[in-house]
Structure formats: structure tokens, C-alpha cells
Amino acid sequence: MLLIGLIIFFILLIVGAPIWLSLGLSGGILMFVFLDLPLEAIISQFLIATDKWILLAIPYFLLAGNLMTYMGTANKMIGFVNHLIGHLPGGMPAAAVITATIFGALSGSATATVVAVGSMMIPQMIQLGYSKENSMGVVASAGTLGQMIPPSIYMIIYASMVQIDVAQLFLAGIVPGLVIAALLIVTAIIVSVKDKTERKKRSSAQEIFKSFIVALPSLLMPVIVLGGIYSGVFTPTEAAAVSVVYVLIISFLFNRKEFTKKNIQKSLVNSMVTTTVIYLLLGGANMFSTALTYAHVPQQITEYVSQLTLPGWLIMLLILVLFLVFGMFLDAVPILYITIPILYPAVMALGYDPIHFGILTIACMMISQITPPVGLSLFVVSGHFKEKLSVVIRGSMPYLGALLVATIILLYVPWLSTFLTK
Description:
The protein is mostly helical. Helix content is 77%, strand content 0%. It is globular, with a radius of gyration of 21 Å.
């Protein structure tokens, strides 16, 4: 049934059907033809996918990120990081990574991070002599940090699927996110050596301090949101709503010029469009994964894996390779909904920590964002800056290597993922 479902799915993709429809139809056909389920039960699976309290956090975090982008709040944060390290060798690409790390902690969205950071950093890097490939590649790659640095939309989806505390998963993502950011910074500095660049003029201590004060309201947002979650003041879903209110307040107080009806409308429309896409993917993917669950595919795979004589780390490595192969052709949301119901029971049977597996899964989803031919971040940078996709792909290759190395480190050093949650 898994093979038949995948064949139907890829045939629908080839003829041009959207991913959510391909998943939903292939799952629906399996349930109707092979499992003889009533049509009402099949259709209800589409709605059940989004009927979870924690998923309400997704539109709120998306809206917060879009508000920061359109209200100019993100620019102040980018300006501070730029003043701080932009003058160093490879400083501008490194500043792009650091800014993406901070912005990822505000929005939870790779797309919002890429657009916000890229809009300000890429023109500056090109002007200073950094190659287009490097400038666009580093932003496309660093934008994926929004999936590991909490709050993360993919973490919310994963936690809702396997029924674990998303706050614990958020906490677990902090150190891995910083490790990945450090590897990307090192890669950015090494890659930038070959670019014949001008050094950005070193900012004075007064300029750095002034930019810090201006950016302080933005920098406080992760502290308030994540601090509120871990102290028990509010739930992750409530924290997402708080983040929207907070951005509106600081934008009204400190960015009055950009606090316009037009910018609010843009933020709302972009958030609604992205939320709709995600929820459609959730619905379609849930129909597919439900069909496999009814057919006992996860149980059979778990039984098979538990009988293998291979070491657990090798099986896990093969699972990560499977994630990466899927990432070449699919977005992260359908990958999660297709694979997690099948693989999660098998991974638990091997004795792995669900938090550790979650972090590894998110790391692979980050890689899928910049894996050709369908990496979402690659298309966002290419489309937003009207540059050839091949240019962005070439620039992202060194950073793709860094993400692969980071994932291997996280696999063999589980302490990085779990020590904050113990």
C-alpha cells in the first residue's frame, strides 16, 4: 500500500497537481479503494489535521514575523548586528547569519527570515564586493535557522504529531541552533576569503551603542516570549499571540512612520496566505499518513526494524538519508506527515529519545529548504531578488555542506539536544 500510495502521489505531481491535493487524493484513494472506509470518515481526516490547539501558534508567529518585516522593526535589529561585526573579515555574511539567528527566534518562519534579512543585507554585501552567489547563498541557508531556533513552526507540527511538550522541544533547539549558526559563520568567513571585498567602515562605540538602544525592543522579544513559556506564564500558543501584540506595541511606539494601514494589511495577507498553504498541506498529508496507519504500515516497519541486527546508529543514519532524499522533491510539511507516523514508532523501538529525534528531524528539514531542485529558501531568494536560481544554488552549496556536518554532529552527540531538557 505504501508503494501504491507513493506511485499515485508522484503521478499526480508529474501531471501538475498541487502537493496538498496529490497527498490528499492518494491517501483518499487508498482509504476508499483498499481499506473500504466511508467517504465521510475519509474527508474528516482533512479537517482533523488542523483541529489542534498548538497549531494556532503558526498564524500568530507568522504574523509577528511579517509585522516586524513590514514595520521596519527587523531593520533596526539588522543594523545593530551590522554595526557590531560588519567591519570584520567576512563580517557581512557572518552578520547575516547572526541576524537570521535572532530573527528566527522572533518569527519561526524561514521565508520571513530570508525576506527580512536578505532585503537589507544582500544589497550591502554585493555593494562591498561579495559575490552574488555568496551573498544570496548565505542568506538562503541562514534563513533555515528559523526552523531550529525556537519558536519553530516545524517543531510545533512535530510536537503535535507525536504528542510531546512543544516547550521542551523549543528548549532543546537552542543549543543545536547555536551550533549550526557557528558552523555557518565559519563557513561564511572561509567562503568570503575568495571575494575581493571592501571592508565596511568600522563603527564607533557610540554608533554601536546607539544602534543597540534602537534595536533593544526587538532584541527583548525572544526573552519575553520564550521566558514566558518556560516560566509557565503562558503556553506556546498564547506566547505566539503575545508576540503579535508586542510587535504592534513597539512598532507603534518606535516605528510610527512605518506603522501604517498598508503595512498591517500586507502583514495580514502574507500571514493568511502562508497559513493557508501550511494548513492545506497538513490536511492532505494527514489523509495520506492516516491511510498508512489504518493499513498498519508503521507497525510492520517497527517490527521489521526491531528485528534487524544492524546497530541503532546506522539505522538512524539511513533514516536521515531518507529525509534528505525526500527533501530534494518535497517541502518539509508533507515530509513530516508522510514519514513521522511511519518512522517514529520504529525509532522509539530503537531506544532513541523523542526530543533528540525531533531535533534531528528538524535539522533535516532545514537542509530540505536549500536542497535543489525544490528547496523553498532557494526559490524565495531567487524570486524576491529576481536572480537566476542557479546562482542561488551555487552560492548555497558550501552552506549545505555545513548543515550536513552539523546534522552528523547532532546525531552522534545527542547531549547537545537533550541536556537542557533533563
